[in-house]
Amino acid sequence: MSSTKDSTEDQIDTSNVGGLEEIIPEPLMPAWRRIELIQQFRETHGDTYVTVLEVLTALVLGVGYAWWAYIYFFGSGVVTI
Length: 81
Known about the structure:
transmembrane, membrane, transmembrane helix, mainly alpha, 0% strand, 2 helices
């Protein structure tokens, strides 16, 4: 390719390109609007949301492990207080 020609990406006009709403049938538009709302939420709050879910998962796993250890050591009568 010569240096005088534009690259393929520069030849395509992407200024007015829409999302999937151009090809989704009208009866499915309410469902698509819900998906768009979820995607907007993820774009806006994605990192915070994932961090909160990781912290909650860690807390649930930690409490579950502590409960398992308590039952294992004190529930079976192996160790007495």
